[in-house]
Structure formats: structure tokens, C-alpha cells
Amino acid sequence: MSSAVPRAHAADSRDEILRAARHLFESRGFHETSMSEVAREAKVSKALIFWHFKTKEELFLAVLGKLLEPYYIDFAQEARELDERAQLERLIESYLLFVRDNASSVRFFLARLLRDGDEVSEEFTSRIRGLYDGYRALLMDLIRRAQEKGLCVGTLKPEATSSMLLAALNGMLVELLFMQSADFDLKAALGTLRGMLFGDAQHNEGGGLESGRTTEAAPAAVVGKENV
Amino acid sequence: MSSAVPRAHAADSRDEILRAARHLFESRGFHETSMSEVAREAKVSKALIFWHFKTKEELFLAVLGKLLEPYYIDFAQEARELDERAQLERLIESYLLFVRDNASSVRFFLARLLRDGDEVSEEFTSRIRGLYDGYRALLMDLIRRAQEKGLCVGTLKPEATSSMLLAALNGMLVELLFMQSADFDLKAALGTLRGMLFGDAQHNEGGGLESGRTTEAAPAAVVGKENV
DNA sequence: AGTCTCATTGACCGCAAGGTTAGCGATCCA
DNA sequence: TGGATCGCTAACCTTGCGGTCAATGAGACT
């Protein structure tokens, strides 16, 4: 009595399920999303989901895996020929652009990180931590090299400065994601950061955050695969 | 057949329920906490919870209300006689101390803010936004007055600087709450902020974050009641 | 043609969730 | 003293969950 219209390859329905699950997990969270809902959104039967993934947990992990993919990109590659100051600015901008363009999955991860006693995401917590620490190390290194060339205020201590910088970036991220603060002036805050790092008050060469995403296939973050 | 041992006033059991609910909501979240668990932890019957609160949602809102109480304190009162620089440092320190000492409820709120499509906490979102904007306004005002007295680097634009400062503080907060970054040097980052605001690299007078909470009854934040 | 595997389904199960109800003992007060 | 009210509970109800299972149509291989 089954009206199944099987696809040639199971991968099709599997992808469709992953897409639906991702959407629902992102907007509603793990516990608030039922397998029936996923099935409805993916337009498959609930049983098929359990055929592809043994448990709800396994489905969730598969979604997490897919979400993490765009986080890896070799930043250093694409900006090797710029001077340290330009690289630094690029790196900072990349961070914010990435967050803006991947807002929903970043939200998702933050929400996950906030839960304690959650064994499921333990592995991913550490992976994200890895990315994060890699980014900070990159920042610190860049600041140190910029200082050696006199491109950056010399009195700053690279370690403390990179921590502070990253904290500031995360704070902006939070501001962007949590509340849509209308009166939060991102560009101005960035200008302040520049002033602090490089000693001049405003720099503002063209491009930057006000332009929409330009390269669809080039997510902005973070660091080479060797950090994962 | 009921073995009820009624209290003289219902408020007792009500408070006990709120305490238990708060604890569970904080550590496990709304959807992961069942009314039966709350009942068990509060050592009352499940039915009694529904006698005090019509629905689980209503219980949740009551918990939120109780959580927000310590967020209000008149900061300006307790630091009126200090100079602007000291006030600024005090304000910054207060922020971080408050977050540290109320970590679990701050986590709770962040987790709530991350959910979209959540009608329930809409009201609380705006209340928190109010607190937040009040704090920023206070920062900005303080920076401006400190500049007028020459206590603070004059080239900074108060508006952008306060935004940036707050972002940095929030970033540290995130770092403290989300991941327990062992290698995140909070004091150093604070020193960098000081250097940036006041032009000197290190200041480090005694007291500060490394001492445990000293005054049990004096939560540290944020701004006067007129902002709520 | 027959059979095997793959992709898929509707129907079902046990269980725990949020919520309800009937009623019990104590206290108040007329 | 006796009912009204308060504080409280055991037992129950309904719904929806995560998960299972037997069955089935559509190729692919022999």
C-alpha cells in the first residue's frame, strides 16, 4: 500500500532531509524540532529519516558536520602579497563578513555552546575552539610582524592586543546577532579599532562592510586546515 | 488519601517552586526541563505547580521576572565623588564583575536571546536592550566628560569609542561564558583597554577582578531605574 | 522470468510530556 | 459547630514524541 516513488540514488532524499533538518534545527533548536516536522518539511516519511540516520542524534551530528564545512578556508593563501597592515585589516573584515553571511549557523553554534551538560556537541565545541584559537594566533602573529615593520602602534603588546581585538569583534558579532541594535554603528567602531591599532583616526578606503557579499563561493574565515 | 502538609502561606511553596525552576531552566533550558522534574526538585507535587502557575510558560515568565531583579541598581549613586577616569574604570570593572557573579543567569538570557521566533521573551529582550543602551549611554557620557577634563585620550570619538568598548566587554563576557578559555588573559586585555582609553600602557592599582566577590548584597551593574 | 537489493512507506508501540480532576486535611470565621 | 476557603496531592487523561517493522514498487543482475 506504499506510494513510494524512490529516487535513483538515496543521496537525493538524504540531502533533502539534511536541508530540512538544518533549517529547523537552526531556527528552533534541537529539542524543539521533532522528527515528524523534519519529515514534513523534507516531504518524506518519518521512517525514511530513520533509515538514513539511526537516531535523531545522528541526524543532528550530520547537520553539524555540514554546517562546519564553510568554516575552513586557507586565509593566508589569498592575502600573501599584501603588507601586514592590509592583511590585518583584511582579516578583521573577513571575520565580520563571515559572521554576517553565515549568521544563522553562527547563531546555531552559539546557542549550542551556551548549553552546559550537553554531551552531543562536545566534539564540536572543541573544533570551534580550535578555529577560534587559530584565528587569534593569526591575529597575534600579524600584529607582531606589523610592529616590526613599524606599520602598527609599537607600544601595544601583541598578545593582549589580539585578545582584546578578538573580544571586540565578538562583541560586535553578538550585537549583530542577538539584538539588531539599530543605533550600533559598526563602521565607526571599526574605525576606532583601526585608530587604536595603526594610530590614525580614520582610514576608510572603499569596499568594506557596506557592500553586499561579492564573491558567492568565497566564505571569509579563518585559518588553514592544519589547525583543525 | 493525600499526605499534604500545607504551609500557612502559599508563598513558601511558590518560592520553592521558583527556585527549583530557575535552577533547572538555567542549567538545562526551557524545553529540556519537565514539570515533573521541577516538582521533584521543589519537593512538591506536579499539580501544585499548576495550581500556582497556569502553564509551564507562565512559570517560565515568573522565573525570568525574578532573574531580572538584581540587574537594576543605581550605579551613579555609589561613585559620584570619584573623578571621571576612576568612574570609567569602575564602570567597566563592574560590568565584568557582574557578569562573572551572575554567570548562570546571564547565560540563560543569552540563550533566550538567541532563539528567534520566540514570542515569549520578546518583552524581556526589550528590557535587556534598555539596560544595555543605558549602560552604553553612561559610558559615552563618562568618556566625553573625561575628555573635557583631559583625563582621557582626546582624539577618540566618544560615540564610536563607547560602542567599541562595550563590544570588547561583551566579547570578553562571551569568552568567559561560552568557552572557558584557559589561555584568555582577561587582565591583560583590560590593561589594553585602559591603555587605549587613557594613553598609558599599564595602570593596575590593587583590587580588581582577581579578588573574589567582596560584598554579597551589592550586585555590580548597571544604571538607574529611570532607564527601565 | 525470477530473484536480490535499494529506497520508501503506513501503521504501530511504549513512554513521557503538559495538563486536569476529584477530593483530602487544616484553618478561619460566623 | 459547621461550612467556606486555602494549600495540597494521587491518579488520571490526552497528545505527541522517538523509534520500529512488515510490506512494497522499482530497477539491476543472472
Q: Into which percent range does the helicity of residues of chain A fall? A: 55-70%
Report on the biggest sheet of chain A.
none
Number of helices of chain A: 10
> In percent terms, what proportion of residues of chain A is strand?
under 5%
Strand tally of chain A, please?
Answer: 0
Distance between the termini of chain A: 49 Å
- The whole-angstrom Rg of chain A is 21 Å
Sketch the topology of chain A as an H/E string, one letter per element. HHHHHHHHHH
What does the oligomeric state look like here? homodimer
* Backbone structural class of chain A: mainly alpha
The largest contact between protein chains, plus residue counts on each side, is:
A-B, 50 and 51 residues
Overall body shape of chain A: elongated
* Whole-number mean pLDDT of chain A: 76
- Unreliable spans of chain A: 202-228
Question: What does this molecule look like?
Answer:
Two copies of one chain form a homodimer. Chain A has 228 residues and is mainly alpha-helical. Chain A is 62% helix and 0% strand. Chain A contains ten helices and no strands. Chain A has helices at residues 10-28, 35-42, 46-52, 56-68, 75-78, 84-101, 103-114, 122-148, 158-177, 186-198. In chain A, helix 1 crosses helix 4 and helix 8 (122-148) crosses helix 9. The first copy, chain A, is elongated and about 65 Å long. Mean pLDDT of chain A is 76; it is low at 202-228. The interface between A and B is large, with 50 and 51 residues. The first copy, chain A, binds a DNA duplex (30 and 30 nucleotides) through helix 3.
